[in-house]
């Protein structure tokens, strides 16, 4: 029965043109995305889910950290203008003086300056000036409040750091965010006092706008110094303690000390349903850290339900597609197999093969055409092979000659600029990976135009050939390359070297040319000389060949500016002559 159905379907499908069969195949292939998505979903593990969560939550805490940093920088900017104002600088100078009357007046005026500056600012509820000894200038401040402010300020001794951020308990029992800004006299940069600002934590609530991590999740800011919460709104109802769990603080602190300013912490306990995943990001220039907490169970429940549904649907679709694909592929593959077997025979040299095929589709036409073509190919094969061998040999010879010509300067016989550009790029990247020095020498024949004009172009060409021969003899190591860069300019590339070796080689080139004593009546020096620019460095990924060539070119032109017949090292006030 199975065999009969197979034969019947094959016969029926062979009545259909291949184009329609292929169309049907593509329709079935359209099911592949569903099958693939089901397979991927089924194969997904908790680790894969965690990776997506890592990216999502890490980006959120980084963005919140940026928002908080922006708000901190705004407050710092405002305090900077106040601290550097002439009125504050003048009153601090009076307060630090020996005149009691001026000191008392300064105390009053400083209090007024604070009220004028921050009196209408709702989010700043504490504002004091402290003297150089960290004592509050305002004598009317409650002693208990004053002691807590001074105690906070005493934690930060005088240093060149101007801003300190932390937390302190306010008079209403709520924790305030505190900024302490050291003020220095503009005249002598001596510590004059400090500005203390207490900011309501609610001021930073805008940083959490539109942040939704899902049910039972939360995001907050805490201080690594002590583990105290800095900002926990709008999740205050979910946080019962004033301090972050010690283990979490230690883990985050360890990561930050290792240079990981933004990170992701996954649960490692077997009972993961009671665990959370944590993403954190440190706010630059502070000890504050933005933290998001997401229950692990929330990450996998919905994903598992959807995954299971997709797997069932994909499996059903997959089984149907396999059945139809098998039948359709058999209708195409059987005649194609016979045609393929015939092609293998012809490939082996048997052109007398005759393929028989039943049907009315394109494969039958192809089989008949193949038989005719095989017969004709057999007759022409020997003649064609002879012509191919002959032309291939000629082409290889021509290509080899063309390759040599394209990489060599026809006049001097040394590599041309194209060859130099290829080698230079390779040697740059090799030196960058190995951390080795690379030397580049840029050479220009002094007053060469005058030489050409006086002696003629033939003598000018001979002069360039002598310079090229001299450079070729000097670039004798495997890693060296001498090339004509253009006109009367030449370059020498030296790999795996050091400064002394490159400078020595450059000076040797200059002296060797000078010692040839080739007459040049149009040169002030009376003979043909060279101006040489040198660059020696360890390349990095930010540099390009063009940048290093410009360096050598600048050094070479510096040699010309200094009178020619010199060697100049780029970036150093060092010449050899």
Task: Please tell me about this protein's structure.
This protein has 577 residues and is an alpha+beta fold. Among the domains are: 65-203, PAS domain (Beta-Lactamase); 417-576, Reverse transcriptase/Diguanylate cyclase domain (Alpha-Beta Plaits, 2-Layer Sandwich), CATH 3.30.70. It has helices spanning 2-13, 18-29, 32-43, 46-83, 86-96, 100-118, 143-154, 246-257, 296-347, 362-407, 417-434, 448-455, 457-474, 499-516, 545-561, and strands at 124-131, 163-169, 175-184, 191-199, 218-223, 229-231, 262-265, 276-282, 288-295, 437-445, 480-486, 489-497, 530-537, 567-569, 575-576. The strands form three sheets. The chain has a six-stranded mixed sheet, sandwiched between helices. A five-stranded antiparallel sheet has the order 6-5-9-8-7. β8 (276-282) and β9 form a beta hairpin. α2 (18-29) runs antiparallel to α9 and α12 crosses α13. The longest helix is centred in the middle third of the chain and has 52 residues, at 296-347. It is flat and about 120 Å long. Mean pLDDT is 79; it is low at 269-273.
Give me some keywords for this one.
single chain; 577 residues; five-stranded antiparallel beta sheet; 15 helices; alpha+beta; Beta-Lactamase; 53% helix; Alpha-Beta Plaits; 15 strands; six-stranded mixed beta sheet
What would CATH call the architecture of the domain at 417-576? 2-Layer Sandwich
Alpha-carbon distance between the two ends: 100 Å
Biggest β-sheet: count, sense, barrel?
A: 6 strands, mixed
Mean pLDDT equals 79
The spatial strand order of the largest sheet comes to: 11-12-10-13-14-15
| CATH overall fold name of the domain at 417-576 | Alpha-Beta Plaits
Percentage of residues in DSSP E strands: 15-25%
CATH class of the domain at 417-576: Alpha Beta
Order of helices and strands: HHHHHHEHEEEEEHEEEHHHEHHEEHEHEE
Which percent bin holds the helix content? 40-55%
- Coarse morphology: flat
| CATH homologous group name of the domain at 417-576 | Reverse transcriptase/Diguanylate cyclase domain
Kindly name the structural category. Answer: alpha+beta
Radius of gyration: 41 Å
The number of E-state strands comes to 15
The parts where pLDDT drops under 50 for at least 5 residues are 269-273
What's the number of helices? 15
């Amino acid at each position: 029965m199975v065999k009969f159905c197979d034969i019947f379907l094959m016969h029926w499908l062979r009545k259909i043109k291949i184009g329609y069969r292929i169309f049907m195949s593509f329709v079935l292939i359209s099911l592949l995305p569903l099958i693939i998505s089901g397979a991927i979903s089924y194969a997904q593990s908790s680790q894969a889910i965690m990776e997506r969560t890592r990216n999502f939550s890490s980006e959120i805490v980084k963005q919140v950290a940026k928002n908080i940093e922006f708000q901190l920088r705004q407050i710092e900017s405002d305090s900077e203008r106040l601290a550097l104002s002439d009125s504050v600088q003048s009153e601090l100078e009076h307060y630090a003086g020996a005149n009691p009357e001026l000191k008392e007046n300064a105390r009053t005026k400083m209090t007024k300056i604070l009220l004028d500056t921050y009196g209408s600012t709702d989010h700043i509820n504490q504002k004091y000036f402290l003297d150089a000894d960290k004592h509050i200038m305002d004598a009317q401040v409650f002693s208990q409040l004053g002691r807590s402010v001074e105690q906070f300020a005493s934690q930060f001794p005088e240093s060149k750091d101007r801003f300190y951020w932390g937390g302190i308990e306010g008079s209403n029992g709520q924790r305030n965010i505190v900024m302490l800004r050291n003020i220095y006299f503009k005249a002598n940069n001596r510590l004059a006092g400090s500005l203390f600002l207490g900011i309501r934590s609610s001021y930073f609530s805008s940083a959490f706008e539109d942040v939704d991590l899902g049910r039972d999740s939360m995001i907050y800011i805490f201080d690594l110094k002590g583990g105290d919460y800095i900002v926990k709104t709008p999740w205050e109802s979910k946080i019962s303690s004033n301090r972050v769990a010690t283990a979490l603080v230690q883990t985050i602190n360890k990561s930050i000390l290792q240079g990981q300013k933004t990170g992701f912490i996954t649960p490692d306990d077997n009972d993961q349903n009671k665990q959370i995943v944590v993403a954190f990001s440190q706010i630059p220039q502070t000890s504050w850290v933005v933290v998001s907490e997401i229950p692990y169970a929330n990450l996998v429940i919905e994903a598992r339900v959807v995954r299971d549904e997709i797997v069932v649907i994909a499996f059903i679709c997959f089984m149907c597609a396999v059945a139809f694909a098998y039948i359709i592929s058999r209708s195409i593959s059987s005649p194609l197999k016979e045609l393929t077997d015939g092609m293998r025979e012809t490939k082996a040299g048997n052109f007398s093969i005759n393929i028989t095929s039943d049907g009315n589709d394109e494969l039958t036409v192809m089989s008949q055409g193949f038989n005719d073509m095989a017969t004709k190919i057999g007759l022409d094969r020997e003649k064609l092979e002879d012509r191919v061998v002959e032309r291939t040999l000629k082409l290889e010879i021509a290509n080899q000659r063309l390759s040599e010509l394209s990489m060599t300067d026809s006049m001097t016989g040394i590599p041309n600029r194209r060859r130099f550009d290829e080698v230079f790029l390779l040697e740059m990247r090799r030196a960058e990976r190995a951390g080795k020095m690379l030397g580049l020498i840029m050479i220009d024949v002094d007053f060469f135009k005058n030489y050409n004009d006086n002696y003629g172009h033939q003598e000018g060409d001979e002069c360039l050939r002598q310079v090229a021969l001299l450079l070729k003899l000097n670039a004798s190591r495997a890693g060296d390359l001498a090339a004509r860069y253009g006109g009367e300019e030449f370059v020498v590339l030296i790999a795996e070297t050091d400064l002394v070796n490159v400078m020595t080689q450059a000076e040797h080139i200059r002296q060797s040319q000078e010692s040839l004593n080739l007459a040049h009546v149009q040169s002030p020096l009376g003979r043909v000389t060279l101006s040489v620019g040198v660059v020696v460095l360890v390349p990095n990924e930010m540099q390009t060949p063009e940048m290093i060539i410009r360096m050598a070119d600048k050094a070479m032109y510096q040699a010309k500016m200094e009178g020619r017949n010199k060697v100049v090292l780029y970036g150093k006030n060092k010449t050899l002559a």
